[in-house]
Amino acid sequence: MTHSARPLLRDLFDAAVAAADPHLRLPGFLPEVPRGRTVVVGAGKAAGAMAQALEVHWPGPLDGVVVTRYGHKVPTRFITVLEAAHPVPDQAGVHASARILQAVQGLTADDLVICLISGGGSALLAAPAPGLTLADKQAMNRALLRSGATIGEMNCVRKHLSAIKGGRLAAACYPARVVSLLISDVPGDDPAIIASGPTVPDPTTFAEARAVVEKYGLQDQVAAYAHLCAAQDETPKPGDARLVTAVTHLIATPQQSLEAAAKVALNAGITPLILGDSLEGEAREMAVVMAGMARQVRRHGQPVAAPCVLLSGGETTVTVRGKGRGGRNAEFLLSLVHALRGDDGIYAMAGDTDGIDGTEDNAGAILAPDTWMRAQSLGLSAADHLANNDGYGFFLALGDLIVTGPTLTNVNDFRAILIL
Amino acid sequence: MTHSARPLLRDLFDAAVAAADPHLRLPGFLPEVPRGRTVVVGAGKAAGAMAQALEVHWPGPLDGVVVTRYGHKVPTRFITVLEAAHPVPDQAGVHASARILQAVQGLTADDLVICLISGGGSALLAAPAPGLTLADKQAMNRALLRSGATIGEMNCVRKHLSAIKGGRLAAACYPARVVSLLISDVPGDDPAIIASGPTVPDPTTFAEARAVVEKYGLQDQVAAYAHLCAAQDETPKPGDARLVTAVTHLIATPQQSLEAAAKVALNAGITPLILGDSLEGEAREMAVVMAGMARQVRRHGQPVAAPCVLLSGGETTVTVRGKGRGGRNAEFLLSLVHALRGDDGIYAMAGDTDGIDGTEDNAGAILAPDTWMRAQSLGLSAADHLANNDGYGFFLALGDLIVTGPTLTNVNDFRAILIL
After folding, report:
1. How many domains is chain B built from?
2. Do residue A218 and residue A123 come from a single domain?
3. Strand partners, A127
4. ipTM for the assembly
5. Domain that holds residue A378
6. Tens of pLDDT, residues B271-295
7. Nearest residue, CB atoms, B282 vs list A148, A255, A285
């Protein structure tokens, strides 16, 4: 088994990514071809690939426009694929969002809008509400991030500063029927949260958004606060007549990707244990906890007996203290190297299913029992690299980065710890 | 089931503590009564209780001296129980260590020394090597803690500055036979690490201890460094003739306590899953990871189906930023409250099996689905208390502290997350 541990880990990752591939997942969720037009809109890291897959499998005429991240465009024939900035929005995103809102104007009840939504869509759908600029929204967003507001509070404010989020896109499509196909990268797979729910009713109100701003004393964000106080044009609420025919399908989720990897492990004679599809926490600390679990497998055959693989998804946090390179997954693995110190029989991989770990060119990296000794022989200190947040540099020097390029889908991070 | 979740969690904790009770564990490990004298020595949080249990069950005459933490003394008839400071050593510990070394002088091959070792013993056995003061040792210890040295490197230096650690106590007993009875509170249950292994051979050398000090540039610890350079009287090495007859028994371990709790859960119809007996990491981050696992049980029935309980042992870390009160377990639970936000059906408890969470009067605390709402109605913010490291204050206000007093044993922390 030992000699094939590395390729097995790579197979698990590839299976997780494949399970979220729009070309494989999307055909099962296509609605009936309408009597009228079919207009396609969408946003997210997978928007280009979803548009391409839809074109291939759609039996009728269609046209439309979607926005994806720079570098994530793919060839299409009928749907325009625009690119914009992520995670910090730019004017290209503002332009793309305006094009999307324009594309759904003047439709009838005989028409169909297919909305292709995936992770990253929130930043790419940068449509400030009338009277606001992108700079106004971004300033409030930064203030919220510093304020200690919960994610729910932040989303409430964001939706009320946007011309497209919180169900407004679906409302703009009325009276056309709206079918949303979603690839989830969020805990709980809530359609109202994925890309800030452009086609999902929003139960929160202007009054609540105002209360959040006042609670954290952010009234000095003058333009945004004034907009919330004016409180015109509320987001569509649950039961809104314009959205009652809207349908939402989750076509890919982190859990499905974990299940796909689990199946590959089972076929290889390895017991899979799925710990969670949306685990969070500081990356380096999660690694310490999981190192303890891996050792428990070795010492006591718990929580399951070896050979086994501990699988998890979800987005960790990296508190940046150093100046090194690398995303969440490299940081997680580097801490795991440090915690395990070459423990026998323990392998691991971690990667972002979108193919880009943070802002580097790698999807993730791989760890083997010999990583510790090989690093020492190269004069690489895991502790020093960890102090410098330099997971990328560490695994680059070892030749243990996993590079896939953009996968054109996104079900968040994937981690596998293999214990033989 | 719901109405009995709290008492069940308390039962699990009590079972974990009982599984490490010297009165229950020690009788199974008693050696033959010797032809000569039986001398009892020892150190640790459980030393008093172990001495008491030994007196009750020992069929022959005995005498001796052990040292335990202030407040942990219990009545004994033949064995003197001294008290000293923990975790920072004091002169009472120096005095007690000298008494212990004196007690094992002049023994013969017909005599038996029973050495009772438990967690905390390292601080209580404060015996500076000849020529050094307690202040010298403590200064070096503080410098090591700041230096980034690994625990293995620190222990190597500590053993070479001590007159009693690293096997020296066993060597002092020669030619008497030495039987050590240990209660483990360390990952891996290595007898050389528990209380710094006073009766276990030490493979490390003065040269290595010197190299550690030089590696981290701590030569300004003049007295301690000079002692390491003089390099006389090496610690007993594996194979040392004075220690070849020494025997070591682990009479209680964190794993055994987890297994005992698992049995109680099973009997209550709850599936236990032991995640690890020595999980480490920052307490608040471990809680975030485990909140994700608990939610996975609720949403996907993984890694096991509810009703289940996730059990773990091992010592977390708390990076103190605030001025609040509370130990590792209160911090863990407070972060769990914050991460779960009152998720339905999830209960938890965490406590130190020694009965003292950090430096407070509680062993731990308890969390229920209503904790979040009850805290809000009292105006208690979990986020604010977490920022202030005030887990004790939070659970005190809720009436949810678990108070046992010193349990007179110690198999480290115990955590249980119950998902119904």
Report:
1. 2
2. yes
3. none
4. 0.91
5. 2-16+255-419
6. 999 999 999 999 999 999 999 999 9
7. A285
